[in-house]
Amino acid sequence: MSLSPEEVKQIAFLARLSIQEQNIEQYSQDLSSIFGLVEQMNAQDVENIEPMAHPQDAMQRLRDDVVTETNQREKLMSNAPLTEAGLFLVPKVLD
Amino acid sequence: MEWETVIGLEIHAQLSTKSKLFSGSSTEYGQEPNTQANIVDLAMPGVLPVLNTEVVRMAAMFGLAIDAPIGKANVFARKNYFYPDLPQGYQISQFDKPIVELGHMDITLENGKTKRVGITRAHLEQDAGKSLHEDFAGMTGIDLNRSGTPLLEIVSEPDMSSAKEAVAYMKKIHELVQYLGINDGNLAEGSFRCDANVSVRPKGQKELGTRAELKNINSFKFVERAINIEIERQIDIIEDGGAVVQETRLYDPDKNETRSMRSKEEANDYRYFPCPDLLPIEITDEFLAAVKATLPELPTAKFERFMSEYDLSDYDAGVLTSTRATADYFETVAKACGEPKLTANWVTGELSSHLNNDALEITESPVNAEMLTGLIKRIADKTISGKIAKEVFQALWAGEGSNDESAADKVIESKGLKQITDTGAIEAMIDEIIANNAGQVEQYRSGKEKVFGFFVGQVMKASQGKANPAQVNEMLKKKLNS
Asked: Domain residues for A36?
């Protein structure tokens, strides 16, 4: 299976990745080889096998409902490019 | 042409936990921005989510209450979502294996009939933070305190056919989650929110029309208005020969209109996949049995029991079971004084109107259940009339008496409001009034029976309202007819 340049662009858009036009051919080949692997797996007979949601055959450990965190705002904001009045500032988000 | 409306609701109920879904940050409302967002909530590299036990218990409780199977091995999935209010770049939610599967909720329609609304599923997911768009020189301010707060998203089947039905359903869910103690029911603070999927189709048509999703409507009143205005809009479009576009719309309560949210290209391609950071959640039979044992009496069961056990009308039973606190208050008083009917009248009447006037919740009432019990006992044993009782209630409300059952007695005593049941004293008053009002006596005796009310009024006035009205009636009749 081979991906068209449009499909590669679409996948990049959905993942919010910026890609260069000259690399698309390469990406197309790389992604297609992953699909090759998926096809190999699809060819296996998995009838009567319950699908797993996680490769580990284990169940989730839970924690108690306790507040363990204290206010670390100053530290956590120290590497933010822009802040004001305790808020992180980001380029305008329009709804 | 006649049109038919199809509505389904997605309700987001914040679960009342102390800490977040996957982190130990506090979920308290209204704190300084970003003081309750830790490295997990900020999605710093290398952090891992750890699931809160309480969230699982609350969701299971909800499932049991709507008769739904609980997913024995339910799974978290990533929903790709690129907004700065959720820095992970995805929302951890549930997709093909939610914790609560198919259940239902019965609603009462305006004609008194019951309708069953299907609940497709309820799943756990993270809430997002808040974006503030004003005052930052063209930038957006982000507060991540709410980011990662646990939500239970309750998705209904498209079973509702009017705005009124949608509101009735929303109110029932709102009541239920509060009964269960899993949500604080606060619409204004956003802990209970609703999106509505609305479409119209010609009456009788089988296939569904194209739907619009109305986002984030934060009051019962607005849900009804938003849906009605959207129905009108869609019918207008179709009748003008157009087609409804599938999109997300925002309701503007100031203008009473819905408007399109700038449609984001391919916004709906969420590309769900199982979250590799989280293992499936196991719900054992023992766990479920333990949750079941803590399930409180549910609103519908309580409603029916109130009607049969206390012989209440469905209206009274409805008002008294509207919140768990009201039901508990009523039941405490009714049991203590042994007068359920009278108690119902006082709770739905005098108490409710005082609470409304002062904008108080029943849990904040200055007249507590013990104080009302004391008062009702004195009405029942005829120490005071219903009219005087209102005066006593007013005094109790103002803080007179004490905080226990003896409060009413203290007020009755100090104000001298005890009902006069001494026949001699009442007789003396009646004799005097008859003697002073010969004209009216004449009218009455010549057949003008309406004048009787005048005499009753005079006696009550003379006794300052303290004579027993039934006794006054009886004695007056005897005297006037002799």
From this structure: 5-42
